[in-house]
């Protein structure tokens, strides 16, 4: 009896995987008539996604934080001999209500020659100050939340009525850190857990209107946010900013070891193939049957995602083992006891 049940469960699982894999390959038609708005196009995933969408013939509205980002994107598009007439860049600061309001005007003007706004990609994000919570301030959390969480909500509120009219797509980047709360990644992790939850909410709500909502959960990829020098310099700054009492509590030995471990992880373990994330973005925009969630990168697929289902106590044990294997000492005030 048990063998029969296991057989049928396995068969159903295989059929589900095969059928969904085939259905996900179906692509929506008339991409040349489906404008997509992408935030955070100065560098990184947003920059590369804008170029990929343009290459595939999609009209692209690229929001950049700086004029340099706008000009650089146009220049690269020209160098690749892409149709820059389908590329419209403009300044967009997702932290600013006024900036988002001005972006709305730009988008409304641009989409008059099309059937509306088909896609919104919430890509803009920052790493912020990432370190142990004892070395951080409340403002560090506010700064990251204002971009990674409130920025997504602010932009989505500004444009979702246009997406509803076309029964289009909203795609947002979260992170593998939205599944596993990594020590020393407090502000970033909090912001990504929050934005993933927001996407879960509106995925159901906007489903009433035929809107597809997808969330990306990339692992650690080599981008400006994961630059080893940037992050180790940041740790130095935060350590020097900490109170004398905090520095005494942790000790120089702990700080230097923590900095070394961080640098080793960012140099050795970050994935270089950033096109995996861009391809996931594009699939969520163009597949007739997009996924609600995309785990991207082998570290997320085989590490963080399954790890997130472990009991909390098991996760804590794993972190303790990882600390031991990484040769990270205890804080000075603990080891002295």
From TrEMBL:
Pfam families given for it?
adh_short (PF00106)
Q: Can you supply a Gene Ontology BP term from the record? A: steroid metabolic process
Q: Which InterPro entries match?
A: NAD(P)-bd_dom_sf, Sc_DH/Rdtase_CS, SDR_fam
The residue ranges crossing the membrane are 6-23
Q: Which GO terms describe its molecular function?
A: oxidoreductase activity
SUPFAM superfamilies, sorted: NAD(P)-binding Rossmann-fold domains (SSF51735)
PROSITE patterns in the cross-refs: ADH_SHORT
Q: Which domain of life is it from?
A: Eukaryota
Q: Which UniProt keywords apply?
A: Membrane, Oxidoreductase, Transmembrane, Transmembrane helix
> Which family does this protein fall into?
Belongs to the short-chain dehydrogenases/reductases (SDR) family.
Designated name of the protein: Uncharacterized protein
